[in-house]
Design a protein that fits this description.
- The chain is mainly alpha-helical.
- It folds into two domains: 2-114, no CATH class; 117-158, no CATH class.
- The chain has helices at 2-32, 48-70, 75-114, 148-158; strands at 117-120, 125-131, 137-143.
- A three-stranded antiparallel β-sheet has the order 1-2-3, with no helix packed on it.
- It is flat.
Length: 161
């Protein structure tokens, strides 16, 4: 049993190192992301890079405690160590997913602000005018059909919220 655990500990360690580096990089990207008016922004322990560093330090402290508990010969230590390692790896995975979601939301909000969209037209035809990256407006025209159900479905599929 100990041989299997000794084989799995380095695998979990490599996962932990990779996730820690990725989480610190995501925290730095989120912290440096332009949020508008930077003069009123306050940098403290609650800023993304500082809170990410604190989370990674707590992760590694609990990870080392979990490894120490797994290496004990008692049944209680083994259960405590495996539980601790599993929980901190789950914490790291959750933190990565949350960081990706925050960065994606910030990018989506920036893209929505940079590309204003104007919709004009009659109820039968909608003309959408949006600003392209080249600076020239793009005009997209689509006709609405009188079928109520297909109109709802088309509007739902074309909505980009």
């Amino acid at each position: 049993m100990n041989e299997i655990l000794l084989l799995l500990l380095p695998i979990v360690g490599v996962f932990a190192i990779g996730c820690s580096v990725a989480l610190l990089a995501l925290g730095k990207m989120i912290d440096r992301f332009p949020a508008g008016d930077e003069s009123i922004r306050e940098r403290s322990l609650a800023s993304p890079i500082e809170s990410t560093k604190i989370a990674v330090l707590i992760f590694w402290a609990l990870f080392i405690i979990g490894i120490w508990a797994v290496l004990q010969e008692t049944r209680f230590g083994l259960i405590l160590g495996i539980t601790t390692l599993f929980s901190v790896c789950l914490f790291m995975f959750t933190a990565l997913v949350f960081s990706f979601a925050v960065l994606s939301t910030m990018r989506g909000r920036r893209n929505r602000i940079e590309k204003p969209v104007l919709q004009v037209g009659t109820p039968d035809e909608i003309v959408t005018i949006s600003q392209q990256g080249s600076g020239q407006p793009a005009v997209v025209s689509r006709k609405r059909h009188n079928n109520y159900l297909s109109g709802i479905m088309a509007d739902t599929l074309l909505k980009k919220d």
